[in-house]
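Appendix B. One record, verbatim.
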Amino acid sequence: MKTILVIEDDPFIRESIQDVLELEGYKALTAPNGKVGVQMATEHLPDLILCDVCMPEMDGHGVLETLRCHPVTDTIPFIFLTARTTTADIRQGMNLGADDYVAKPCTANELLSAITSRLERQAIVQTKSEKQLTTLRNNIAQSLPHELYTPLNGILGFSELLWRDAETIDRGEIQEVANAIHVSALRLHRLMQNFLLYTKLELIAHHPEQIEQLQTQITYDAEQMAIMSAEQVAAEAERSEDLHCSEPAISSVNLCIAEAHLQKVVEELVDNAFKFSEPGTPVVLQQEQQDQAFCLSVSNQGRGMTADQIASLGAYMQFDRKYYEQQGSGLGLYIVKKISELYGGVFTIQSEPGKTTKVQVKFHLTQHPMAANLQPL
């Protein structure tokens, strides 16, 4: 049984709505003013809230604004019941997060129709969210343990070798073992960094004020920085000869993105290209300006991705694991995608299985020191 909270100061209207809802099979809770309504919403967490606008103690706009500020109530469907239905009134309510308006006076059928529509939409959203969470949980369960244990096993195994045979191992072997431990530790460290960054980006995505603050960040001389980051990744992968970078433009490029985030984008794109292509095949970093945008792309001649795989790209998503030994947790490309979205950029993948893959990100250019409230490209 769905629970609906009715916040209405007129006792006749409040009781009439309660009767209609209960006859329809809903559990109806009522509150005589906004202050009581907020308290009841927090205590009972109803499936939907019907709320008048003009009320004593706290008006409907105050109720909605208060509820949207709390995680436990911010997703509850909220419908205004009001005689104030001018464009300005509706816009104000929608800006605060209202889901719908029902004009008073209204018939029982009009009210029930609005309720049914909102509850059905909420059910669809919840089903989709649950499906996404299930997919994420499955992906984590399949990929994360492997990615954690692989470098950890390397650290444990090689350190045990040193401990057990310290007196008989010569200096050259000690250096080899120490290097293997170091490589495994770096891999584990990067995995944890990506996990923490992924979590942070997901949290920022739900806070508009933090997004605006991000979009004031600027990277100067972005082309040179991108080349340096790509060359470092190539050196670590021992594939410096495979990396081909386009020549930087004469004038420096300044982008509306934090330098650390742009560096992360380049590192993940280049690393991913090396990961899924054979040594000796080229990995190409291209950079160009298009109007007020800067396009950065990385291409490789690897196994590629199908259209379905591109469409289902997500955190901890790995493809064809049973056919390939796949390094990485699948977070890299998703992090790049998330960063581009937070800065109003565009992330695209063009791939032909078995031939080439090109991943491109597009960011805003800036000519001024502040660049907040950017519109998507």
